[in-house]
């Protein structure tokens, strides 16, 4: 018998997902397809009889917008939403804004795969000359964090994402789950991967092969120690999910941007 249910969700497609650019801490809204993905996800969760008590999001609009659309489609708009920068997408440093396929042409697909999926390789740091530096660090939302702005990351490996996420997980999310609340975490590809690594004890090597498509709920059934009782379930049409995973993986294939 499972004790707790937890749903992790990578937001619906964002405008830069469509353009195949590293989006990371740049605040982008959902694309039209992304809005539809989030609504479909909400409908699916409603059909499954899912009832959330609490939702956590990052402080990036695409994860918040996704949570709203999911709750709206479920007729559960009243459910409280708590936001934290600690659930933000991985900080991709100097890679932010660049096109993955073009980076693969310039640096090779292997290098891009290492940047995207290795556990402990940090991409090159962002600095003040970067075109998105000011947009990110002058944004008022980063004055609301529980660390001073100067201490926010300038680039992160997946390991560093997990290091900043775990304090929030332990102090804020775990107690709510243990109080019996059914929680949705509407976050990002890499913040969800980091959490999955932690919960499932995925090895540093094997996490490179875990890819999450946009807008697909990942359901976990946990015991009283928050250990998974069975393999994660990606909910929805399995053939479509496999195709969506391949699409995300193929974003790192070398090709001229169109
Ligand atoms: O930051 C981004 O652009 C994506 O949401 C995650 O990108 P990735 O699939 O290359 O890690």
Automatic annotation (TrEMBL):
- What CDD domains is this protein classified in? HP_PGM_like
Under the heading InterPro entries, the entry gives: His_Pase_superF_clade-1 (IPR013078), His_PPase_superfam (IPR029033), PG/BPGM_mutase_AS (IPR001345), Phosphogly_mut1 (IPR005952)
The answer on whether this UniProt entry bears the keyword Magnesium reads no
Which reactions are catalysed by this chain?
(2R)-3-phospho-glyceroyl phosphate = (2R)-2,3-bisphosphoglycerate + H(+); (2R)-2-phosphoglycerate = (2R)-3-phosphoglycerate
Which keywords does this chain's UniProt record carry? Glycolysis, Isomerase
User: What is the E.C. number?
Assistant: 5.4.2.11, 5.4.2.4
Q: Which family does it belong to?
A: Belongs to the phosphoglycerate mutase family. BPG-dependent PGAM subfamily.
Name recorded for this polypeptide = Phosphoglycerate mutase
């Amino acid at each position: 018998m499972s004790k707790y249910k937890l749903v992790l969700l990578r937001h619906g497609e964002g405008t830069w997902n469509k353009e195949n650019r590293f989006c990371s801490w740049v605040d982008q809204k959902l694309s039209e397809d992304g809005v539809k993905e989030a609504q479909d996800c909400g409908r699916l969760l409603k059909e499954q009889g899912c009832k959330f008590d609490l939702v956590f999001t990052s402080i990036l609009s695409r994860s918040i917008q996704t949570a709203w659309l999911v709750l709206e489609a479920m007729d559960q708009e009243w459910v409280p939403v708590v936001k934290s920068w600690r659930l933000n997408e991985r900080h991709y440093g100097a890679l932010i804004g660049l096109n993955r396929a073009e980076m693969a042409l310039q640096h090779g697909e292997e290098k891009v795969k290492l940047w995207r999926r290795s556990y402990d390789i940090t991409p090159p740091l962002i600095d003040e000359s970067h075109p998105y530096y000011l947009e990110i660090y002058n944004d008022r939302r980063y004055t609301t964090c529980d660390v001073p702005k100067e201490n926010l990351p300038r680039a992160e490996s997946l390991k560093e994402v997990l290091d900043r996420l775990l304090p929030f997980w332990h102090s804020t999310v775990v107690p709510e789950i243990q109080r019996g609340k059914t929680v949705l975490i509407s976050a990002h590809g890499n913040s969800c991967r980091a959490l999955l690594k932690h919960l499932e004890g995925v090895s540093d090597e094997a996490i490179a092969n875990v890819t999450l498509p946009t807008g697909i709920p990942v359901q976990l059934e946990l015991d009283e120690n928050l250990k998974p009782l069975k393999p994660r379930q990606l909910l929805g049409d399995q053939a479509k999910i496999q195709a969506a995973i391949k699409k995300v993986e193929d974003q790192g294939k070398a090709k001229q941007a169109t």
